[in-house]
Design a protein that fits this description.
single chain, mainly alpha, 8 helices
Length: 215
Amino acid sequence: MTVAFIYKPDFGPVLRRAVHRCVGTVVGVAAIGAVALLTGNTPYALIGTVAVFGALMAVGVRHHYAVATTGLTGMVFVLVDLLGEHRTLYGTRILDPTLAAAIVLVANFLVWPDSAGSWAATQTEAALIAVRRYRDLAPNATSAQRQTLRRAAYRRLADARRAAAQARAEPLPPKRTFPDWEATITAAEQVCDAVTAEILANTADSGGDDAPDSA
């Protein structure tokens, strides 16, 4: 499970996620160990601990992977204790994510070092296809169809820009460079904007209503 969470390509740079996973696990183990030492695992203390770590995980999911991992680690220990499993799991809990992170880093940087670049290239090509569809089909499409084409194009462009940023955040081998995906994406965005402006102008002249939505 940890390998899958770290290696998911649209979750951010792999190296950063691997480091955050290990750091968050160590901090979570240390925190829950301190709580157990101070409270003796009394029921009310466990309930309060679940609430605190659950809130921490909820915040971390939106803002920082290490914080989310810290909260998750604390909740796992509390729930295991509530189930009556009192084995010492601190070392195992640190060792397992560390091994998973090592597997991911070996796979990403030794077995498939171009994975981030390949993902960014794939996303950029998908965005260009969506933009071409919008450019070619929108002038003769209905208002609802235009909205669908426009949303698909801009969504794909956003995905491509995010993938390009993630690829550039990964460490590269010496003398390895990436194409200028950002320039391609920017040009495609300008094409979308021009198509949208032309459609709006034509719609205004004909008295119709085809304003783009917030998406």
